[in-house]
Design brief:
With 167 residues, the chain is mostly helical. The protein has one domain.
Length: 167
Amino acid sequence: MHTKRYVQLITVFGIGLLSLLISLGNITDYWTNFEFVKHVLMMDTIFPDSTIKYRSITSPILHHIAYIIIILMEAMMSVLLLSSTFSMYKAIHLNEPLFKKAKKNAFIGITIGIALWFIGFEVIGGEWFGMWQSTTWNGLSSANRIVLVFGLCYMMLSLEVEKKEDY
């Protein structure tokens, strides 16, 4: 029946779809989330007396570069995850080594996602740029949710496939 394989397939498809929708949203509605990136980098909504404002980046060019890097990472992640979904689907009834090989791009895509939303948003945005201090431009809860889901998907994907007598 390959129950675990189907669960892994659905999991990878789900986060691949999430990544695709996020990247498409950022491409088709560029200016909305650009404002988010701009305000986080400018640190203009953190606590007024904060002593870390020297870290702010006020260059519009650098705001665009940072946002484009984010979009490219999201797009790359969605391509890797969705291509792995297709490969996993094709290999669902094949032997274990071939199914494991089909998951390679999923592991890479998930790693990119964790790097983006944990290192990029939580560590750099949240701590370095003090996003946690902003009530207006604070994406930490969303980043935390995504990192948690990606981490759980990574763990689910790491499970060994079942033996024929399982399930």
